[in-house]
């Protein structure tokens, strides 16, 4: 019997790799002779680097870079292993994330994506020829200007003075130059994990949709949206690419637009990128049963999250799919319409959140064992 175990991480308690092991620990009590295939998965957001590093026996590379406010922060990216040895995986939040900015200091006029550009440069220096970049969780609304500055793009004001790449700098741009843009980017395969379809500007754009959570006032919103409009016009004049209204251009404060305007990047749903990178179809061949899961399964799980992504891949092989979760939320049954055959929660009794985190591995193993025993009973009948 070949069993695929392909879950996401359980936030704040277990990595995806640890969830895989916990599930096997329970299943092996029933199926001692089974072949277990671990595929730690993520959906392009937080945990994607760790998931892909674990799945390919890669490595986490730690770096000191500029944080959103210009101070030095500890960041990281992943270098994948095996056949993906020249692939680097970067989460924008690692360098430019909202968690680097205390709530009292959140101001998208002041924050910059410069550190993300530094991570990209570091990965290129280490020989990366493919970049997978997750755009979620940024503290910035600079249109990717800071990131581009770190990679060599020059931004000038009316007096042709260089401008710092942050939100307020965005409002001062009168011209830009890509002559010093890192030439390695032209030959680099760049795939952007993007699960939002917001354009760069307007009522559904980067600032209007995400600016408030980053500290923008109503006045800031108009100021920065107007600046992004002007910025997009300058990019189109220089690069010949219209970036204002492309779905996903508004991701991460407009960083999606920066990648689309200055590189050959393509935008894809995060779960699609991860499953393609892990070649999940190759593992699904000859399998008998698939387990997936995440910390909480609810109606949102049906929209681009790991369990449904795994289930849809498994259904191409007509495989049964069981999802195991730490807990269940509103309308979790929505996932039944997307390839998941059964859902179970690992919480055996009422307890507080800290206990749930502490006991997650044990409870997941016990749940997996119970599911296997029920499955075994069904096969006898």
Automatic annotation (TrEMBL):
Keyword check for Cytoplasm: no
UniProt keywords, alphabetically: Kinase, Transferase
Gene3D superfamilies: Glycerate kinase, domain 1 (3.40.50.10350), Glycerate kinase, domain 2 (3.90.1510.10)
Family annotation (InterPro entries): Glyc_kinase_flavodox-like_fold, Glycerate_kinase, Glycerate_kinase_RE-like, Glycerate_kinase_sf
Keyword DNA-binding: no
Protein's GO biological process: organic acid phosphorylation
Alphabetized Pfam families for the sequence: Gly_kinase
Superkingdom classification of source: Bacteria
Gene Ontology molecular functions: glycerate kinase activity
Classification via SUPFAM superfamilies: Glycerate kinase I
Record family assignment: Belongs to the glycerate kinase type-1 family.
Name this polypeptide is given: Glycerate kinase
Source organism phylogeny: Bacteria, Pseudomonadati, Pseudomonadota, Gammaproteobacteria, Vibrionales
């Amino acid at each position: 019997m070949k069993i695929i175990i392909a879950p996401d991480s359980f936030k704040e308690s277990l990595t995806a790799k640890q969830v895989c092991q916990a599930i096997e620990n329970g299943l092996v009590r029933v199926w001692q002779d089974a072949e277990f295939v671990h595929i730690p998965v993520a959906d392009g957001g937080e945990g994607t680097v760790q998931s892909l590093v674990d799945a390919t026996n890669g490595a986490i590379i730690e770096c000191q870079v500029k944080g959103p406010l210009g101070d030095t922060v500890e960041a990281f990216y992943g270098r994948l292993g095996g056949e993906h040895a020249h692939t680097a995986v970067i989460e924008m939040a690692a360098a430019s994330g909202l968690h680097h900015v205390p709530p009292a200091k959140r101001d998208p006029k002041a924050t910059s994506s410069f550190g993300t550009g530094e991570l990209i440069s570091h990965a290129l220096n280490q020989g990366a020829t493919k970049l997978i970049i997750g755009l979620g969780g940024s503290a910035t609304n600079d249109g990717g200007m800071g990131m581009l500055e770190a990679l060599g793009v020059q931004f000038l004001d009316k007096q042709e003075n260089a401008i710092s790449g942050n939100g307020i700098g965005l409002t001062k741009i009168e011209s830009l130059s890509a002559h010093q843009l890192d030439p390695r980017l032209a030959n680099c395969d760049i795939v952007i994990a993007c699960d939002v379809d917001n354009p760069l500007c307007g009522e559904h754009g980067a600032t209007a949709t995400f600016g408030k959570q980053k500290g923008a006032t109503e006045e800031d919103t108009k100021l920065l949206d107007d600046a992004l409009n002007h910025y997009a016009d300058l990019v189109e004049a220089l690069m010949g690419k219209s970036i204002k209204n492309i779905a996903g251009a508004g991701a991460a404060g407009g960083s999606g637009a920066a990648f689309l305007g200055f590189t050959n990047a393509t935008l894809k749903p995060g779960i699609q990128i991860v499953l393609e990178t892990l070649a999940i179809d190759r593992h699904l061949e000859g399998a008998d049963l698939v387990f997936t899961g995440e910390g909480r399964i609810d109606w949102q799980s049906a929209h681009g999250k790991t369990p449904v992504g795994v289930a849809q891949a498994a259904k191409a092989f007509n495989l049964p799919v069981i999802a195991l979760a730490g807990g269940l939320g509103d309308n979790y049954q929505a996932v039944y319409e997307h390839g998941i055959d059964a859902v179970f929660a690992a919480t055996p009794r009422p307890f507080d959140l800290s206990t749930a985190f502490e006991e997650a591995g044990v409870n997941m193993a016990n749940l997996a064992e119970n599911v296997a025993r029920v499955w075994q009973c069904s096969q006898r009948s």
